[in-house]
Specification:
It is built from 8 helices and 5 strands. By secondary structure, it is of the alpha/beta class.
Length: 216
């Protein structure tokens, strides 16, 4: 069952939790599943990820940031995503091209046409079959991030995007919602304010319908 599913949303929306829950569920159903993430997913990508998320790089130019994301993505698709799809895996990816539009386009003002052109180049025209957008207000997402940091006693931020202003995250959220509005056949919005078990059941039901549709 070849299927490429991406997960999107602001910081603290619960993507990582939901990917883990869905992967476990689908594997119990007998499907072969790979979970991966952007930036990262490869040795080169993980090196780029460290640069992008390091809070000490707060002054990184937005164009540098954009190009680094695309470099990581190109390698990720070549080394992980395409081979997995060719082998019949369901690929669950934490962030993909929609994230670049939301973060670098809507929130940082880089030309959306430029981003879409670079996305095409980096992906070699690979697009997700289905996207789950876990939507929640920026206030809730950032509160969850703060709680998580306290829980793991994280004194130094390991993700500079988590340090950005609430206004930035509100723009990212707005960007995601506008992207979803223009891609309603591909993007399914889930209310991330709900309990994680409820969110999981909704995602699970939606993905199973998508899988059944692929079989027809």
């Amino acid at each position: 069952m070849k299927l490429f599913i991406t997960f999107e949303g602001i910081e603290g929306c619960g993507k990582t939790t939901q990917i883990c829950l869905l992967k476990d569920y689908l594997e119990k159903m007998g499907y072969s599943v790979i979970a991966t993430r952007e930036p990262g997913g490869t040795q080169i990508g993980d090196s780029i990820r460290k640069i992008l998320l390091d809070s000490r790089n707060a002054n990184i130019d937005s164009r540098t940031e954009l190009l680094l994301y695309q470099a990581s993505r190109a390698q990720h698709i070549k080394d992980v995503i395409r081979p997995a799809l060719e082998q019949g895996y369901i690929v669950l990816c934490d962030r993909f091209t929609d994230a670049t539009l939301a973060y670098q386009g809507y929130a940082q003002g880089i030309s959306k046409n430029l981003i879409e052109s670079l996305n095409q180049l980096a992906t070699d025209n690979l697009t997700p079959d289905f996207t789950i957008l876990i939507d929640c207000p920026a206030e809730i997402g950032l509160k969850r991030v703060r709680i998580r940091k306290k829980t793991v006693n994280q004194k130094v931020s390991e993700d500079r995007f988590e340090d950005k202003s609430i206004a930035f995250h509100q723009m990212v959220r707005l960007g995601y919602l506008q992207i979803a509005e223009g891609n309603s056949n591909r993007i399914y919005i889930v209310d991330g304010r709900k309990d994680s078990s409820i969110v999981h059941r909704e995602i699970r039901s939606t993905v199973l319908k998508k899988i059944e549709g692929q079989k027809i």
